[in-house]
Amino acid sequence: MGFQKRQHGVTNFPAITLVLLAVIMYRYECSAGLIDGHSMGQILDHVVHNALGVSEMQAAFDQVGYNERVIDGPRTIQELAAALQKKFAEPVNALLRVKNAIERQYVHFTDTNTMDKCCNVTGNLVYDFRFRTKINTDESCVSTAALSPPNLKFPTALVHQTMKENLAADPTLKWQYFGMETGVFMSYPSQMMDDCESYDPRYRPWYAEAATQKTKAVVIVIDTSRSMGDTHNGRTLLEIAKEAAKSAVDTMNPNDSFAIVAFSDSATTPRFTEHQIVTENVDTCYETKMSRATPMNAKNLKKFIDGLSAGGATNYAAALTKAFEFLRHSNTTAEEPSILFLTDGILTAGGDPLQTIRDQNALLGNKVVILTFGIGRSLGYEGRTVLYNMAIQSASNPAYGPIKRGRFAYVADPDHLRSAMSSYYDYFCTIHQNPRPIFSVPYLDSLGLGLVTSLCLPVFYADTLVGVTCSDVTLSDLLTDISTLREGEVSYAFVIDGAERTIFHPLLPKPYNVESDQIFININQLEKSTEFKEVVQSMARGNHGSKSFVSTRVNSRGDDFREGVHAVPVYSHYFWHPIIGTNFSVCLVLGDGDRVVTLKMPDTITPEMFKYHRLDLKPGESQCRHFARVATTTSSTVMFGPIAFKKLYLYLDTNETLESVHGYESYLMGNTTDDLGLKDSVKASVAITYQAEQIWKNKQLLSHYVVWRYIGTVDGVVRVFPGVQLSKNFDVTQRQWFKRTATYNNKNVLTAPYLDAWGAGFVVTLSHAIYDSRYAGKNSSSGEIVAVMATDMTVNYLDQIVQLYGPCKSATYRCFIIDSAGYLVFHPYFVTVSDKPQVATMHMLFQEPAVGYDLVQKGILRRESCVDLEAIKERHYWWVHLQDSAYPDGVDNMGRRPSYELRPITNSNVFFVIRQHPIPDTHDCLCDNYMGHPGNSSCLRDDEYPDDVCECPCYRNALFNYCDHVYNISHSASSHACTPQTPDLTDMSSGEFGRVQQLKPCYDIQCANMTTQDMCYSMAGCSWCQEASDGSQLTTPFCATQFVCYFGRIGQTCPYDNCPGDTISTGRKDQEANQAGENGDNIGIILGGLFGSMATVGIFAAACNILFQRMKSRRRRRYARTRRGSPTWTSPAATSPSTSDQSQSLPAVDEIRSP
Predict the structure, then answer these.
(1) What confidence score (pLDDT) does residue 887 get?
(2) Within a 10 A sphere around the Cβ of 62, how many other Cβ atoms?
(3) Any bridge partners for residue 709, and if so which?
(4) Is the previous residue joined to 934 through a cis bond, with omega within 30 degrees of 0?
(5) In 311-447, which ranges are continuous DSSP H helix?
(6) What are the pLDDT digits (tens) for 361-411?
């Protein structure tokens, strides 16, 4: 469906005062072009300062006192290191208690199991927020692996009691468990497992790493000759071998390295096509290099193992040669590199394997250990002898180094191969009198705890390994002092391990937000200053020190996929210190001159200042329906995000109850000194943001056209009006609107439209920052951001603002707004009547390619990129560079091809564009999947292409060395890393659907009383019904709630999974009576308020119309003088005036008539 003619009558447009209308008309007449960004900027200013109350809030912040502290780097780093040492020591001490209990009790282990089976727990399981699943803290459970030997022994009750006491003493502990050499597994707290027999602790990375206490480098060699196609118990030997090989891979951790070799007539190594590799990157190194045993590499190489098939002869020498090549070309630090050699028969091709081992191992100083596995009863004495001699390297020359005798395992029953092969690490196990706790490389918890590290210790009895015991702790608990650190505006901290892997850094997701397998980033990929090399080398050695140099801060512009990042050089002071008792080190980075600024504590907080957002805990209080949410208009609601707490576990691992809310109230109001873990600054933030509620309540009439209003502070406090419950993972400082606003100093910031998750339809967010006032005599915006205020408006409301410009209503022009990244903030398509209008985050290069291409050619719209470290992709996006181009004031291309004008909207992040319609020529840009997320749109040209190629935002595979797990950022199009993606929020509205249906609306907007399209769309929640369900035009269009005709057509499906339907009557039959009886309360709502009598309105309207007619005449003459060399010009079509009811309050801009 094309554009529908707008229904303009007498309007009550609520966003512009008469004064602003006069300003627009005046500036429109005096401006050099068709459009004027200054006037539109004034409109946004008016909304920000009147509807949102930014000026009043800034004044409130200016009046309060601030505490300012200079950051003492040496002292702060010592305090951080000491705090982290204590955090790490607590779970280590708990682990030692369990280890000691097991070793004391091992002699008392009995063959009778007194605990529940984990796959058949009989105790009472209760959901526990700390574990994200149902558990029983009074019990432990036990599982037994399928291949466990007979006559098993089970742990005693004393071991269980020790684990239980540990959890009571340290609530940050998660799972505690003990895996035995026999395959018995004990876990506390008790939980339900799907299949007890399928879980074998001996095959897990934590078990192998703790048992060996060594870094491993392993080449797994698999026989794929014809005989491996023979069957055993319904499975081929190759299928059994594949299972065993993959189990061996499972025992490795990212500190280890491994490779796979398959052989028959010759040896083959992994090589993938684009559709085979799990990570969708063709260029891999698996064919020639050892790989770090990361989850990603393990998945990819398991995929290679799965694809093996049987056939051909058996060439041992070729397989061994390839295996030694892997080891020779690797840079592993493993003391004893090893080859696991698996076959079912004697060699039938190739040279002497013993000579191959002799020659190849000599090149490596005879340090390689060979473990051979022969399977099946068809393997005769001769074949077993060869494999035995290969393991002991009987032909090798000790002159090149001591010969390390390996082991040969004959597995007559192939069903036991998995157990035999996966226990290869037993060879490397040595007795340690005081083994050090192993901190596993962080991994993603399957239950949603985020990144977890396992602290493990081997358990010995009579100098024999009997098992491994571990305790799990989340990184968010261990690193809470780092992840919530806010030491100034440009200062931060990070943590690395001894292998220079980054454990935490601001450019990586917070540990509790990680949702996929971790990409282990070398710290040099994030801290790339040349001077930093000295820092990281010292940290890796476990030293402490300090150094100062210029480094780069990479900051998000808001939406990391669409807007990318900007980098700022900062003279920085680095302070680092080891975390004693671990292989980790922490570094504090301070910006030169950075200060810590906090609000002074308020005298008192009264009950009306604080209403916690958990409305579900107080259902008896006054509640109403605001769109699809349970809300309250009696007050705003306050939420504390994760960073508002000193210790994250107090928030993340706590299920808030009514008692919790009462605790917050008691602390804030001074009735108790128990702060419940809240930071000291929170009380001041609650007090100061209460003034925002008072401002919003004083502007209640404005609530009809703004959807939500909210303010968030840098310490994690957020206040929303109307009051509503927020999701638990809502961190205001990580939301796109907050980060985007922080990018623009003292500007009004608009977002591209999006579907409001709370039922308001397609909205845009308008936001503005609040600054501290510590710089006397300067504007507040010179200080540090302390809060961001924002409001949501419907797309149709934004359309009303655009329509204030007369030419934008003409069929001759199209007007649209873009943001700094080139995305459409408004376009006429967004308000087109259709079954599914194209309201999406859409780039101008797709929708307006001619204008976009011209901006690219003029050097205004420029391509930029960053490397997405999580997805291994290079993100390409665009940025408007107007100020540093040849067109700092905008572009007037009218009378040329393409014919358009672009002006920056003053004091904002957006640009107003008007173009001729239809445009004489077009230019197609490379755009694919424009309606989807740019993170899912692959660049259509994968080669190195120039920056002026017109292509929508997209991604390319980043240059990444999978084997070494290192980015080649220096050769990428951008040297900067992308910032972490904003996590998705938990959907709150779906859980409230039933309650919402029973509530009355918070605002009775009476859509039926809105008699024109302009009036209708000035009310949030109303929609102008223009078409019947069959697409035919209605004889009399009318205004109704959006669920009647969501996009202008009756009966359209709303864009939500759950739609409340037309719960407010359209009132068609009473429309005339209601209209006559209205006193203007619902119609005359405007930001500045209407002032003057109706006679004043009529006189002003007449004057404006005279001015407007003169402007149009002057505009036609102006372009007649400038059309030389331009295409045929079509003058703006005059808009026909329409009659109007003189009782209405404000005429539409394009219908002002002369007296």
Answers:
(1) 93
(2) 14
(3) 721, 791
(4) no
(5) 316-329, 353-362, 381-392, 417-422
(6) 999 999 999 999 999 988 999 999 999 999 999 999 999 999 999 999 999
Pairing of strands 407-411, 369-375: parallel
- Strand 338-343 to 217-223 pairing: parallel
Residue with tokens 């404006």: 1104
Give the E-state strand segments of 1058-1110 in sequence order.
none
Q: In one letter, which amino acid is 300?
A: N
Structure tokens at 475: 């990184």
Closest C-alpha among 829, 848, 862 to residue 925? 848
What confidence tens digit (pLDDT) does each residue in 440-472 have? 888 888 777 888 899 999 999 988 899 999 999
Which helix (H) or strand (E) element contains residue 638? strand 637-640
Beta bridge partners of residue 955, listed in sequence order: 875, 938
Instruction: Note if the bond before 918 is cis, omega within 30 degrees.
Output: yes
For strands 891-892 and 900-904, give the pairing: antiparallel
Which helix (H) or strand (E) segment holds residue 995: the answer is helix 993-997
Where in 235-379 does DSSP place strands (E)? 235-236, 257-263, 267-268, 291-292, 338-343, 369-375
Q: For the chain, list the domains and their CATH numbers.
A: 35-67+602-792 (3.30.450.20), 75-207+434-473 (3.30.450.20), 214-428 (3.40.50.410), 1004-1048 (no CATH)
Q: Which two tokens stand for residue 788?
A: 């961001």
State residue 593's pLDDT score.
86
Report percent pLDDT > 90 for the chain.
45
Residue 787 CB-half CA count within 13 A: 31
Residue with tokens 């076959």: 343
- Bridge partners of 467? 180, 459
Confidence of residue 332 (pLDDT cuts 50, 70, 90): confident
Query: Could you tell me the two tokens for 374?
Result: 């022969």
Query: Over the stretch 60-114, which tens digit does the pLDDT of each residue have?
Result: 998 888 888 888 999 999 999 999 999 899 999 999 999 999 999 999 999 999 9
d(CA 765, CA 732): 14
Mean pLDDT of 104-128: 90
Positive or negative, the CA dihedral 1065, 1068, 1069, 1072 is: positive
Please state, in angstroms and rounded to a whole number, the distance separating the CA atoms of residues 753 and 819.
11
Which pLDDT value is given to residue 502? Answer: 92
> Exposed/middle/buried for 299, CB within 10 Å: 0-12, 13-18, 19+?
middle
Rounded to 10 degrees, the C-alpha dihedral 153/156/159/161 comes to 150
pLDDT > 80? residue 37: yes
Please name which of 531, 532, 504 lies closest in space to residue 518, comparing C-alpha atoms.
504
The whole-number pLDDT of residue 698 equals 87
E strands in 390-475? 407-411, 438-439, 443-444, 451-461, 464-474
Q: Count other Cβ atoms within 10 Å, centred on residue 193.
A: 18
The Cα-based distances of 895 to 107, 551, 1109, 1122 in angstroms read: 95, 47, 22, 7
* CA gap 1007, 1017 in Å, rounded: 9
Amino acid of residue 496: I
Q: Is the pLDDT of residue 797 over 70?
A: yes
HSE-up (13 A, CA, CB side) for residue 182: 16
Smallest CA-to-CA distance from 187 within 100, 105, 121 is with 121
Q: What number of helices (H) and strands (E) belong to the chain? A: 26, 48
The DSSP line for 130-199 is TTTEEEBTT--EEEE-TTPPSS--B--HHHHHHHHHHHHH-TTEEEEEEEETTSEEEEESB---S-TTT-
Residue 71's contacts (CB-CB under 8 Å, 6 or more residues apart) are 487, 488, 491, 590, 594, 595, 596
Q: List 632's β-bridge partners, or say none.
A: 723
